[in-house]
Amino acid sequence: MYFPILNTMKGYSIDEILFKKLDCWLGTRRLATRKFLNPLNFSIDTGIDAEVAMYIFALCTQTNINILKVKYVVECRNCNHICGKYYSTGDIPRKISCSDCGISIDVNEDDIKIWFELIQEPEAHPFPTTMKNVIEGVYDLGKQIASVHLI
Ligand SMILES: [Zn+2]
Fold first, then answer.
1. Is the predicted pLDDT of residue 151 greater than 60, yes or no?
2. Which residues pair with 96 in a beta bridge?
3. Residue 140's pLDDT is what?
4. Could you report the per-residue pLDDT of 76-94, keeping only the tens digit for each?
5. What predicted TM-score, i.e. pTM, was given to this entire model?
6. pLDDT band at 150 (very low <50, low <70, confident <90, very high)
7. How far is the centre of ligand 1, averaged over its atoms, from the C-alpha of 84 (Å)?
8. What's the count of helices (H) and strands (E) in the chain, helices before strands?
9. Which end of the chain is more exposed for a tag (fewer CB within 10 A), N or C?
10. What is the mean pLDDT of residues 112-121?
11. CA 103 – CA 96 distance, rounded (Å)
């Protein structure tokens, strides 16, 4: 497993297939997206019900699992610039001014997007090193192709 701590979910009577899918999904996210995870994307990628997905994401923020953290992002309603990121609703200012377009916003619910941030490193890599060596030529080619598509 990428996050063995997810086995804790057994104690909440969570179906094993759910947290195994979550483990795999979290462990294979691109580095750049690990700070902006959304349970709906997990739901779409795995076919798991959206409400169930939200529930297990919320469980992952609890102190005994603690691999995800809730993040509140305030976006400018004029230019979509990210004006601030907060880890508690109490920290969100009532008024914020956009450093990009200059408008002043009275922050309300519609301006706040909720994301989950992965705060633990996966304990495993998707491929064992030995396997990577066997397929090195193809692996390098795959990396080149992937990097072209990521730009
Ligand atoms: Zn703006």
1. no
2. 105
3. 73
4. 999 999 999 999 999 999 9
5. 0.78
6. low
7. 12
8. 5, 5
9. C
10. 95
11. 9
What is the length of the chain? 151
**How far is the CA of 12 from the CAs of 4, 15, 94, 121, in angstroms?**
15, 9, 37, 23
Residue 106 CA, ligand 1 centroid: distance in Å: 13
Q: Could you tell me which of 20, 23, 58 has the C-alpha nearest to residue 38?
A: 58
80: left (phi over 0), alpha (psi -120 to 50) or beta: left
CA separation for the pair 64, 66 (Å, rounded) = 6
CA nearest neighbour of 67 among 32, 26, 20: 26
Greatest Cα-to-Cα distance within the chain, rounded to the nearest angstrom: 57
Cα-to-centroid distance, 42 and ligand 1 (Å): 29
Is residue 104 within 8 A of residue 95, CB to CB? The reply is yes
Cα(107) to centroid of ligand 1, in Å?
A: 13
Contact 82, 51 (CB under 8 A): no
Within 31-109, strands assigned E span: 68-75, 82-86, 95-97, 104-106
